[in-house]
Amino acid sequence: MSSLSTGEAVVSRSITLLVQRARQLERRRWRQLVWLQGGARQCEALAVALWQTQAWHSPLWIGKGAPVQPALKANQATHRLGTEHQLVVVNAHDHAGGFNPDALGAIGGTLTAGGLLLLITPDDWGREPDPDYARIADAPWQWSDLTARYLARLAAQLKASEQIIRWVPGALPRLGRLVATPPIMQKPEDTDCVTLDQAAAVRALVGLKRRRPLVITADRGRGKSAALGIACVRLLQQQRTSRVIVTAPRLAAVEAVFERVVALCPDGNRVTPERFTFTNGAELLFVTPDALGEHLASGTLGGDGSYLMVDEAAALPPALLAQWLAAFPRLAFATTVHGYEGSGRGFALRFRHVLDVQTPDWKALTLNTPVRWQAADPLETALNQLLLLNAPLPNAKEALSRPSASYAVPRDELAQNEAALAPLFGLLVQSHYRTTPSDLRQLLDGPGMHLRVIGQQQRPQAVLVTREEGGFTTDLADQVARGERRPQGHLMAQSLAAHAGCRDALTARWRRVVRIACHPGWRRQGLGGRLLGDDRQQAADQGVMLYGATFGADAGLLRFWRAEGFRTVRLGVTREPSSGEFAIMVASALNPAGEKVLDALSERFIALLPNLLAFELARLPAEVVSLVISELPEQPLTAVEWQDIDDVATAHRAPSLARSSLQALAREASRWPLSATGQSAHQQLAAWAFQNQPLAEAPGVSVRALREAVRTLWAQQPLPPAARDR
């Protein structure tokens, strides 16, 4: 037999073995990852042979320059959410665009029972970065100059995995043995549902009680979005309500909800991607988080009898969810426990106390049984390990009676120590509402990244992640400020230059906080402040001028950063569509040169603030407004201003004719030690004085409430007795 025919025989036998494995997997309702490692042309030829050997259900090729169709570029993989595939080829060779972690994380959930996920990589995968690293190559770095710790880790994990099939050109695939077949899944009586878990969720959603919100958590592929869709159909068809609102970070996140509704209601009409109407006139409507906030403010949504379904709630700020708790009597939150949509585990930890206070009768429900595949699925197990989607949360306080000093963590060591990497990443995931598989690559290979930890190596209790910014030339800084250039990365420094016009913000060297996380068992114990203090000292020793952070404008977060000595330098003028929050930037100086830049940034911010609050930031939450106005220069109230305040508080002076004096009172009271009642009064006054927000719908009621707020603050002024008796 010739060498060519021998090669053809090996290929034929390899394809046969993989098809047979796919049938075995289908009987078990499992899926599996096939790692094809070798030269680009050989591997692509083998993948095409597998593709063409039978009529796979909805096969898909991910990567540039695909030899077959249908195909998508890696950055389009999330567009396939809600679809089902029996064969997916992910080409991670350089000419195909490299390896996109988010694409693998997204597409893995679309494989059906009996499906194969074929991952094609070079022979020496992990020795150097690939073109997809261009997404994390901040200027002036080139992607080819970065480290490849992340890819090296993936290659090592694949080599050690017993859950995958390994295949190299010229040899038969190493299939490995499948574990014992899991027990057959029991079918529910509800024929619209696939699992008993899903049926229970639908019953709970349809039976939502007033002021008893439901919190549904599930791993990916458990059918939570479909359960929402089934419940919406029953609520609207049974005319329990005429409208159900659904919201999520993006429309694509609820596509599965709408698809289930369309499948169950063929006579209905999906008028737009955001709206489905029923034959009885009822409607299912998607509203973005920021638009939902505007509707609530204007009173056009919410109120008695209204329903709200929130999908992927972990990707939304708890403060926003708390607002919806008060506005919608019947409400359900659904979220993925882990995965690229956010950490449901972290969501539960952060949001539980809000639920306990506002709606103590809330109920929790967990979906454990997979819908598209059976338990112990090899593909799910492999992807969870590769992408750390189920990174464990370290034990709190174990062997750590008193947290020790923080220490820097070298990334070379971390990448090679899975026992340390997994809990560290788990701590980051649980503390943040938006985590993607790419974040792990950024952590290990992003340029200018620094890690600092408190706690033992395998039991971190607090972690700080920062990155270097700035250091631009004068010419480049000027071009950025003029809007002529936008180099990659340097989020905070470029934003301050482009939006505040401050060139020095780009020429200065910054260290920006990317994430700071503390174990729930150690929160409010000063660990975050200790991390920041130690890291700022190290940054100062290294010549860094400024230290900053950017986050959603939440009052609790702002208080934390202010307590650490940071000053506000910018407020975004539009809400983030995915979170419904305004972005805020804070900074502190590390040396005299940095102090000079910070003073300039602060002056610009202070000059803009009153007008921004009156116009672009008229919807900024009052609790945040009451904090940021303390950035305005301190200036004792004049006798005229005190007289105006007295006239409003104790007489019949129209508040609008004393607005400037009431603004002065709000400004100065922002520094007073106020009681809880005083803080509430201050927030009301700040919102009225600076944003013209009425305290009630009826004008007379609003004015009376404002006078009461002014009297409350008057009574809490920290003035000498002589001034108080004036």
UniProtKB/TrEMBL annotation:
The keyword Nucleotide-binding applies. Keywords: Acyltransferase, ATP-binding, Cytoplasm, Nucleotide-binding, RNA-binding, Transferase, tRNA processing, tRNA-binding. Residues 205-355 form the Helicase ATP-binding domain. One of its GO terms (biological process) is tRNA acetylation. It is found in: Cytoplasm. ATP binds at Q198, R372. The keyword Transcription regulation does not apply. It is an enzyme of class 2 (transferase). GO terms for cellular component: cytoplasm. Residues 449-587 form the N-acetyltransferase domain. Signal peptide: none annotated. Catalyzes the formation of N(4)-acetylcytidine (ac(4)C) at the wobble position of tRNA(Met), by using acetyl-CoA as an acetyl donor and ATP (or GTP). Belongs to the TmcA family. This is tRNA(Met) cytidine acetyltransferase TmcA. It comes from Vreelandella subterranea. The lineage of its organism: Bacteria, Pseudomonadati, Pseudomonadota, Gammaproteobacteria, Oceanospirillales. The gene is tmcA.
